[in-house]
């Protein structure tokens, strides 16, 4: 069924507590934890508890949860006292997506370049 946990998915395992993570926030629909390979002083992954392979698929199926995800990214940014930050959804392997469970990268705490690499 759409959104059901996937036994082979790393982020579903993190949500289930089967793989340890440093959790920073949890709501009924979202989970936020620190990236294991941080690319900035703050690098938090904000994910839906429901399993969808990427952000656009999530948005098509679950607009409310997508809004929850973006709101939570903002809440984490405020808690981390970030005045500026970047929210990134890598979509597709060519764009650097390696985990196919939708996730927002919240990055902050250093200067950011544009365009991104
Ligand atoms: P993507 O490359 O799919 O956009 O992002 C996946 C992110 O997950 C990467 O930034 C990577 O460092 C992070 N990651 C991969 N494995 C783990 C893990 O076991 N724990 C945590 N906390 N992050 C992970
Ligand atoms: Zn998953």
From TrEMBL:
Motif mapping: Histidine triad motif: 101-105
Database matches in CDD domains: PKCI_related
Protein name (Swiss-Prot/TrEMBL): Histidine triad nucleotide-binding protein
Start and end residues of each HIT domain: 10-117
């Amino acid at each position: 069924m759409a959104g059901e946990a996937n036994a082979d998915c790393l982020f579903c395992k993190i949500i289930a507590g089967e793989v340890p993570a440093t959790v920073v926030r949890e709501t009924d629909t979202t989970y936020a934890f620190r990236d294991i390979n941080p690319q900035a002083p703050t690098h938090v992954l904000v994910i839906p508890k429901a399993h969808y392979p990427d952000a656009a698929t999530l948005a098509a199926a679950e607009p409310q949860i997508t809004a929850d995800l973006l709101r939570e990214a903002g809440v984490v940014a405020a808690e981390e006292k970030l005045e500026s930050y970047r929210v990134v959804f890598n979509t597709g392997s060519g764009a650097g997506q390696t985990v196919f469970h939708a996730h927002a990268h919240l990055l902050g705490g250093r200067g950011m370049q544009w365009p991104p690499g």
